[in-house]
Amino acid sequence: MPPKSILKKTGPPMTERNGRPVNQRHLDVALHHANILEQRKAVEAQVLDSIMTLMEYPPSPDADPKRPSAADARDFTAAVAAFQPADYDALIEERNIADKCGYALCPRPKMRARSTAKKQFVDTDKGVEIVDRKVLEVWCSDDCAKRALYVKVQLNEEPAWMRTGGHGEKIELMVDNAQELRTALPVRTKQAAPAPVKTEEEEDLDDAWAALDNAKTELALERGEKPGAVSKANNSLVQDTIKEHESSNAPPEPPTLPSGSTMAIEGHVPRHNRPKDEDEDEDEQDWDKDLNG
Amino acid sequence: MSDERQPSASLIRMWRVWRTTKEMMNDRGYQVLEDDMNMPLDEFADKYGRADGEPDRSKLNFSAQPGEEMLAKYTPVATKKDPEPRPQIGTIWVEFNSDENVGLKQLRDYMQHLVNGAFYSGIMVTVKPMTGMAIRLLRGSATMSEGPKGGVEVFVEQDLLVNITKHELVPKHVLLSEEEKQQLLKRYRLKATQLPRIQSTDPVAKYLGLKRGAVVKIIRKSETAGRYASYRWVI
């Protein structure tokens, strides 16, 4: 007996469940939203992962926060790009618990306050200030604080799964060796071997398809999608068939009062508003009127 | 200086936390020594106090084995495919963390320790609430391959100062085994989704370590009926 597959059989799309027909559109909507949620979960897991790696940054103990190595700087900016400012704060908190300077590119331990008192005196330009010990023990130096906050202000407030691309994706570092980092960008790999020669017609066709693909990916980038992620444009949900409103040349009509009595209250016309002749005929409650009158 | 040493406030606090933890393990069905649950303060101070009168948290850690009843309760119903199911419970490791702040690092170390020690599940009791990221890791850890099979629970010391189940307004909660759950659903011709619900973050649900999908029987006092039982589905 051949082994039986445990996978579901892929037949034609299900059109009936429990005897009732399934609305394909409802299924599509549900699937679309489920995919968006899934994507959101993936982004959150990625942020958590990044924080865990950045907690133990930089890899070498003698790294210099002023002149980070190109690889460190690249990894750091790439990881941080998906962060919200709150995530960045969480990273600083985690690093402090691990007794490290809050700036992820700095290998030194955080500053130690002079005593273990809750509040500390600090000399500033304006005189002596009283500061929480926690605030004091975040960075190793003021310089690191400046560099770390320089990154924080560039972060996007919007969560990564809702971002529309195009802006704010590039994080700049405050470094002294900016020139070096720029030149140390990843070298482009060599071009693939030349494809077999094609006829001119085929080439034209291929060019057209390539242009279409290019345009599509550019459009996706503009919407803030990453390759492999769920597309925000859903062909089946948003249709691009345009329906035109038919215009008629008839002149507009002025509004008119609805026919019948305007004094009706939920369909009932009160007695004293009724036309006189209607009131004249035999009524069950005539005696009532006579009494009151 | 008098011979009698006055236990410090933090030691008394720790004593209460520790006793509640032992009671909690007992209520869940783990094997706990009777003496541990009723240990007087003096004995506790002798055993776990340091010279300076502070509690020594690293000595408080303990592991517990599930009892017979608990093993039976956590065993899923036998099916054709799995005629002899294994109980979904095992040795638990309870750790009293002494760090001021607990973050990702401590939580991950703890999970690693649980895996290395082949513990089924773990409870960490912390001095202060964990950081937000650590809570996020904990939430996601149920589906992760990292960490122990039975999951990790985290309690803050403050929440364990008093045993909430001993309060007169808290009714008795009893976890149903898989078999009892099936019987209940069959008896009343229900689906689990048709039961009333209880959140897994509910204080008593946390105390009993209830997992999503379990059914808990709640027995209340009733003026007219004497006792009244209701059932809730953990979500």
UniProtKB/TrEMBL annotation, chain A:
Keyword Transmembrane helix (UniProt): no
Protein's UniProt keywords contain Cytoplasm: no
Region (Disordered): 1-21, 222-293
EC number from the UniProt entry: 3.1.3.16
PROSITE patterns: ZF_RTR1 (PS51479)
One Gene Ontology cellular component annotation held by this UniProt entry: cytoplasm
Keyword annotations: Hydrolase, Metal-binding, Nucleus, Protein phosphatase, Zinc, Zinc-finger
Main localization category: nucleus
Compositionally biased spans, kind Acidic residues: 278-287
Localisation: Nucleus
Function: Putative RNA polymerase II subunit B1 C-terminal domain (CTD) phosphatase involved in RNA polymerase II transcription regulation.
Protein name (database record): RNA polymerase II subunit B1 CTD phosphatase RPAP2 homolog
Organism: Didymella heteroderae
UniProtKB/TrEMBL annotation, chain B:
Gene Ontology terms, MF aspect: DNA binding; DNA-directed RNA polymerase activity
Localization terms from the record: Nucleus
Signal as UniProt keyword: no
Primary subcellular site in the record, as a coarse category: nucleus
GO cellular component: RNA polymerase I complex; RNA polymerase II, core complex; RNA polymerase III complex
The family this protein is said to belong to: Belongs to the archaeal Rpo5/eukaryotic RPB5 RNA polymerase subunit family.
Protein name: DNA-directed RNA polymerases I, II, and III subunit RPABC1
Native source organism of the sequence: Didymella heteroderae
